[in-house]
Amino acid sequence: MSGKVIFGFIIFFLGLGLLLDRVGVNTFSYFISTFWPIIFILIGISNLFSKAKSKITGIIFLILGCSFLLVTTNTINGNILGFIWPIILIIIGLWLMLPFNKKSFRENIYDKNQLNINTFFTYQMLKIESKELIGGQISSVFSGMELDLRNAQMVPDGATIELNNVFSGVEIIVPKNWRVNITGRAIFGAFENNAEAKEGENNPQLTIKGVVIFSGVEIKTKN
Fold first, then answer.
1. Distance CA 195, CA 178 (A)
2. Which CA distances in Å does 170 have to 25, 76, 141, 196?
C-alpha cells in the first residue's frame, strides 16, 4: 500500500465525514475520535509490504495503531498505554544491537550535493558520492545510521553537516585526508572524533554541528 493510497484514504475519510455532517448525520466527531488510530495501522501495513521501508517501523506503527484503537473503542483500559512505550523502546534497543541488523540493509547511494536526510525508527546505510558536497542536515529519532563519505568530494570552502538526533546512533566514515571540526552539542550523549586526518591547509574540512540528545556520534576513517 503506497503513501498515495494512504493519503487518499485520509482525504476520503475527511470528505465523507464532512458530508455526513452537512446532511445532518452528526457522527463525524465520533468517527474521528474513535477510529483515527486506523491511520497508524495503514502506515504500518504500508511499511511492512514495502521493500524500500523499514519493517521495524511498520511493526511499531501497527503496535501503536492497534493499541490506541483498542483504547478509543473502550476495548481495554487506557492505562495500558503506559506499558506500550517501554515495550517499544525495548524492541528498538534489541533490534539495533542485533549483529545481523546491518546485514539486512542494503547500502544506498546518495549523490546529491546537499544532504537532507530524516530517519524515524529505522536504520540506514548511505554511501555519499556527491562531487561538490556542501553539507546539509541529518535528523534522526530512535534510529541508527552509517554515513560513508569516502567517495564524496567537498567544495573548496569545506562542508558543514548539521546533526539533530534523539535516541540515535550515527557513524560517519570520512576520507583520511579530511579534517573534522566538531562544534555540535551533546546532551546526555557524545561526539567522538576518531578521524586520522592530519592538520594541513590543503586538507578539506568537514564541520559537524547541531544537537544530539541521548545519542552518540562517531567520526572515523576506514580502509
1. 8
2. 51, 38, 11, 18
Model pLDDT, residue 50 = 62
162, 210 contact by CB (below 8 A): yes
Angle between the N-to-C axes of helices 38-48 and 3-22, in degrees from 0 to 180, rounded to the nearest 10: 160
Mean confidence (pLDDT) of the chain: 77
**Close Cβ partners of 174 (under 8 Å, ≥ 6 residues apart):** 149, 150, 180, 195, 197, 206, 219, 220, 221
Neighbouring residues of 187: CB distance < 8 A, sequence distance ≥ 6: 211, 212, 213, 214
Question: 90 or 132, which is more confident?
Answer: 132
Q: Which residue has the cell 488510530?
A: 37
Separation between Cα atoms, residue 173 and residue 193, nearest integer Å: 10
Domain ranges of the chain: 3-97, 102-220
Grid-cell match 546505510, residue found: 125
Residue in 31, 32, 56 with CA at minimum distance from that of residue 44: 56
User: Residue 199 has what DSSP assignment?
Assistant: P
Q: Which residues contact 3 (CB under 8 A, 6 or more apart)?
A: 46
Cell of 109: 547511494
pTM for this one? 0.56
Residue 101 dihedral angles phi and psi, to the nearest 5°? -60, -50
